[in-house]
């Protein structure tokens, strides 16, 4: 292993459970860790236990009245508001404690990297990127991504880049830092005209004094591996090279997969594996190897998320797995018991070749249009020529 990587994990994070048939079911985390262990990815790795975020740490991002509402919600006898008690964000027992633990797990990952104990750190339970300073949104109570970034800034880090590959726009993180030139937020997502939350247009580029620090690549429904990777490489590396972050924070939602029930992109596990390898390379190239990798969305709980995030763990640990690797029989047996009638794949691959053709400046498709729009909106703000296609 070339770089020390911390894996922040304890089964207590499974307490972030929105209940019943809610799409964000913690079984996806349990199955991922079981699969990674079964394949030897975590051999010799002692997980770093998370600790809850303190009120002071949460208040760097969230309003005091919102924290009070989250605490009160499980016992409140009235409509508490703040986005709580909705279909997306139902109230559950110990909601504040569970949410603070997820946020604290992401701070723990950031602490590992900033202290030098590790060059990289992974918190699969994190990535709750939709929570706003004043309300819950999109299955997210506290925005652990923003809380961890705010913690890094409070420790004196001058430049943090956040790259979000979830199918949904990273709206809560963007909003938190929209006017802060110290944070570059980059989101590749399904076009907001076609998917909740309806934000993340290329024209959203940062507030006064922070122009160019919000980057949005809005991709059309049906975008697969080759086009997704084409867009990523046409926009993201040049901007990170120019921004020169001291730490790279990423959100690795697995819901851009073609089987995800809540969205309409068409990536495979193979393409997602390549996206993680690209993020690892960017951390080395642009951030001195300092990489905090968080989880995120992903609602194909049994078939997709465990395979995708096992690749993420393997990538962060420099233990890259052959996509053709068979899924262990003991894992399949357990997964079948919890998945019910869901048929399961038998290997870590979807059998796709994620090779892509780099963008040459010619706009021939709707994906190329998204690339053009993002480059023309952002590159001049960083002193870059949107027509220069050299990486």
Automatic annotation (TrEMBL):
Family according to the record: Belongs to the histone deacetylase family.
Pfam families on file: Hist_deacetyl
Tagged with keyword Nucleus: no
Alphabetized PANTHER family for the sequence: HISTONE DEACETYLASE HDAC1, HISTONE DEACETYLASE HDAC1-RELATED
Source superkingdom: Bacteria
Gene3D superfamilies, alphabetized: Histone deacetylase domain (3.40.800.20)
Recorded metabolic or biological pathway in which this protein acts: Ketone degradation; acetoin degradation
SUPFAM superfamilies: Arginase/deacetylase
Keywords: Acetoin catabolism
Protein name in the entry: Acetoin utilization protein AcuC
Domain Histone deacetylase intervals: 22-315
Recorded coiled-coil stretches: none
């Amino acid at each position: 292993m070339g770089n020390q990587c911390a894996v922040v994990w304890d089964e207590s994070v499974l307490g972030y459970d929105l209940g019943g048939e809610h799409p964000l079911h913690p079984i996806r985390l349990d199955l991922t860790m079981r699969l990674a262990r079964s394949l030897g990815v975590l051999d010799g790795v002692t997980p770093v236990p998370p600790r809850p975020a303190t009120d002071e740490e949460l208040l760097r991002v969230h309003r005091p009245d919102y924290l009070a509402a989250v605490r009160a919600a499980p016992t409140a006898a009235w409509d508490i508001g703040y986005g709580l008690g909705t279909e997306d964000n139902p109230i559950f027992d110990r909601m504040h404690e569970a949410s603070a633990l997820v946020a604290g797990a992401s701070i723990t990952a950031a602490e590992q990297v900033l202290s030098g104990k590790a060059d990289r750190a992974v918190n699969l339970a994190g990535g709750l990127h939709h929570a706003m300073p004043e309300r819950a949104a999109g299955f997210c109570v506290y925005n652990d991504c923003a809380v961890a970034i705010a913690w890094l800034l409070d420790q004196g880090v001058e430049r943090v880049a956040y790259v979000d590959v979830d199918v949904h726009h990273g709206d809560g993180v963007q909003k938190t830092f929209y006017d802060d030139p110290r944070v570059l937020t980059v989101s590749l997502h399904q076009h907001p005209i076609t998917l909740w939350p309806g934000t993340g247009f290329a024209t959203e580029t940062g507030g006064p004094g922070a122009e160019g620090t919000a980057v949005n690549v809005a991709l059309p429904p049906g975008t697969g591996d080759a086009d997704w990777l084409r867009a990523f490489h046409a926009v993201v590396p040049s901007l990170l090279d120019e921004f020169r972050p001291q730490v790279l924070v990423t959100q690795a939602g697995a819901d851009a997969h073609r089987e995800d029930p809540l969205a309409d992109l068409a990536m495979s596990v193979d393409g997602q594996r390549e996206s993680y390898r690209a993020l690892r390379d960017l951390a080395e190239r642009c951030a001195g190897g300092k990489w905090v990798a968080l989880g995120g969305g992903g609602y194909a709980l049994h078939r997709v998320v465990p395979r995708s995030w096992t690749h993420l763990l393997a990538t962060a640990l420099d233990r890259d797995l052959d996509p053709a690797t068979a899924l262990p029989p003991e894992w399949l047996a357990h997964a079948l018991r919890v998945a019910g009638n869901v048929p399961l794949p038998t290997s870590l691959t979807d059998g796709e070749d994620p090779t892509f053709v780099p963008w040459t400046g010619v706009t021939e498709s709707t994906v190329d249009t998204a690339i053009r729009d993002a480059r023309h909106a952002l590159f001049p703000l960083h002193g870059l020529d949107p027509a220069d296609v050299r990486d």
